[in-house]
Amino acid sequence: MDNWITWRKHQRANLLARREAIPEETHHNWSIAISNMLKQGFPILQKMNIGLYWPFRGEYDPRPAANYFKQRGAILALPVIIRKHAPLCFQEWWQEAPMKDGAHGIPVPDNTKPIVIDAVIIPVVGFDQQGYRLGYGSGYYDRTLAESNPRPLIIGVAFETLHLDNVYPQPHDIAMHFIVTEAKIYQTLNNKLIPISINQCAMENTLTAPLRKRRGFPIQRIQPGRT
């Protein structure tokens, strides 16, 4: 697609409006379902340094699930923009951590220590059948993930209503390893999003994550001709 920038801008606005229009009770119930999927499908996160985010504009709130993992041994961190077009810095966060206003007024940790993350829970405006996400368009997560060493486990979280056929990924875009919605857990395999059971997800991560944590998790980028 030649005009992918215009398409993404239009689609992003539509999806944000759709997400912000979700009734409060529905949003609450869907969020609980996503949290339960994360807790049951990713027990390996209990032993990891987890990057998460502060919810914004109707996003799923990952903090309850993240605190569940923290109570079982995980270390949590929130992203901080150090400078424009630079990778994000993840700084340690806990419920009573000192905070300050960051970009767009979103709270960020106030001078807590930097954390090298093993896994990251990423906000999603939209996602497609190949495991790529539509974000807000700044590219911070893609730059951060491309430069991370070792590369973390990437878990996108979104509501099922934000599922698209194609977000027209570009060479700089990085696919997610898993996407969790209120209805399903998806895994990205061979450029395709595959629904898997909670038990399959838990077993896959329990068996492979310790080795990948040391070596880094592979990333998927779009191949020429696949957009």
Automatic annotation (TrEMBL):
Any one GO molecular function term: 5-formyltetrahydrofolate cyclo-ligase activity
Highest taxon, organism lineage: Bacteria
Required cofactor names: Mg(2+)
Enzyme nomenclature, EC number: 6.3.3.2
Enzyme class: ligase
Cross-referenced InterPro entries: FTHF_cligase (IPR002698), FTHF_cligase-like_sf (IPR024185), NagB/RpiA_transferase-like (IPR037171)
Catalytic activity, as annotated: (6S)-5-formyl-5,6,7,8-tetrahydrofolate + ATP = (6R)-5,10-methenyltetrahydrofolate + ADP + phosphate
Gene Ontology terms describing biological process: folic acid-containing compound biosynthetic process; tetrahydrofolate interconversion
Keywords from the named record: ATP-binding, Ligase, Magnesium, Metal-binding, Nucleotide-binding
Family: Belongs to the 5-formyltetrahydrofolate cyclo-ligase family.
Protein name: 5-formyltetrahydrofolate cyclo-ligase
Organism expressing this protein natively: Nitrosomonas cryotolerans ATCC 49181
